[in-house]
User: Which sequence fits this backbone?
């Protein structure tokens, strides 16, 4: 799955350079430039790729809950007044 995630990331990088919409004045819905709509879709695709990355390709060592990473013995603090 990691290979698929890397391929998707590379595809997003290539698709991010959208020189084909630079001179197109088409408006979607009469208000949104087509280049902006393209980047909106690209942003949604990037968030889905990130979801796949976290769900399937994230290293297991990074997923240790904070409660398990704390030391077992609390640190002794001085109780004498200063």
Assistant:
């Amino acid at each position: 799955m990691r290979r698929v995630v890397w391929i998707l990331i590379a595809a997003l990088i290539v698709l991010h350079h959208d020189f084909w919409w630079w001179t197109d004045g088409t408006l979607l819905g009469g208000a949104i430039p087509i280049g902006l709509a393209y980047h909106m879709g690209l942003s949604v695709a990037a968030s889905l790729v990130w979801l796949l990355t976290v769900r399937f390709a994230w290293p297991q060592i990074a997923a240790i809950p904070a409660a398990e990473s704390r030391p077992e013995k609390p640190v002794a603090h001085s109780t004498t007044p200063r």
In short: The helical segments are 2-16, 34-56, 66-69.
